Amino acid sequence: MKRLLLSAFCTWAAIGCVTAQTHRYKPEFHLSERNFCDTIPIEVEDGQIYLTVESGGRHMRLNLDTGSSQGMVYDGPEAASWQELGNIVTHDANNRADTVKVVRMPAFKMGRLVIDGYVASVIPVPKSQKTGTVERKYDAIIGFDLFNSGLCGKIDARRKVLILSDRKKAFATEGGYSVKYKLKWFVPYLYVSPFMRHTDETLFDTGAQQLYTMSKQSFDRHLQDDLARLKPLAGMEGSVESQVEERARGQLSIGAFGAEQEDEVVFLRLDRLKWGDYAFRQVGAITTQGASRLGAAVLRHGSVVINPFKKQLVFQPYDGGSETVVGNKLFGVAYVPRDGRAAVGLIRRGSDEYKAGMRQGDIILSIDGKPVRSFADFRRFSFITGNRHRLLLQDSGGRQKEVMLQK
């Protein structure tokens, strides 16, 4: 079975942006319906949520990204034809800032709801993608302003539906595990508990794939607090240190404006991660330089209700229990763009790739004899499950080497 390299072979952080300065942030788009409740089909692919909408007689695919305060679209001929509204300063997933233009998208129909005047930031095409055509899985992002406009929503990935309603009590009779959120840069932050006696401010971000990633700064703070309290018992069961699997140095998160800076990355195996009174157990997690995030993988275990009137998120487990064992396996290697080329950004010492001779900083020159001249070339390459693939690499000293990897 063929599968895309991106999902099978490396870690990719969604480009969802949190805008620190938005275009007159007040969702001003017009909704065609009032006092309605509509069930809209969604697609779930590679841990992401997609909606198909109709605009001007053609279909557009939107990625639902609660970590983005407004819509987003890549720069290109289509975006250039939309009404330009000005510029904003925006921050990507790694907290890198840039000034981008803002456009008003043409009206589109989502379910039976017509949305007119939706605003989107125009994200420049990364340099690593300008050297070749990249097949993107979506045309634009729809952000958390969909809910900030006064719509309650329920994301049910098992049934593959998004239920939207402007009724304040649309989901009031449904059960679940409720937590409050606060808007920070107009996106939802809640508190989860990754360690006993610790809470972590975390963005609910369906644009991120992994269930949980922790801010490295937050991890360091948790560790120091734990050591201060439990110094004689450091490393005891349940402590922060006891849940560290490995430490490495590198970079893995790719935002709209490039990869994060190289830093220490901590691999964690959390005994439990608590959402209110609900527990996700045996959670594999990593640290990154951006904010802590709860990603779309949460939706594998239950649906989530978003209530903007109460600023409340409700987790509704599919099995009806009070906990679930996640047991997710963490990746062994992550690839990032470096000077336009595909490079090994991070590698674990116990991974098959490391045992085969791959090292952090290696540049990929070819795969199975096919040149890889850009990160875009690398993203397009498809591996075949079960086959062995020959990679020609160049190490940090300029020396070439070959490694054989089986996928």
Termini distance? 11 Å
Oligomer: single chain
The count of helical stretches stands at 6
User: Biggest β-sheet: count, sense, barrel?
Assistant: 9 strands, mixed
DSSP strand (E) fraction?
A: over 45%
CA radius of gyration is: 22 Å
Structural class: mainly beta
Number of strands: 36
> Which bin fits the share of residues in helices?
under 10%
* Shape, per Cα inertia axes: globular
Q: Return residue spans where pLDDT drops below 50 for at least 5 consecutive residues.
A: 1-23, 128-132
The overall average pLDDT, rounded, is 85
What this model shows, in words?
The chain is mainly β. The protein is built from six helices and 36 strands. Strands 17, 18, 19, 20, 21, 24, 25, 26 and 29 form a nine-stranded mixed beta sheet that branches. It has a six-stranded antiparallel beta sheet with strand order 3-15-14-27-28-16, with no helix packed on it. Strand 24 (263-275) and strand 25 (278-288) form a beta hairpin. The protein is globular, with a radius of gyration of 22 Å. Residues 1-23 and 128-132 have low confidence and may be disordered.
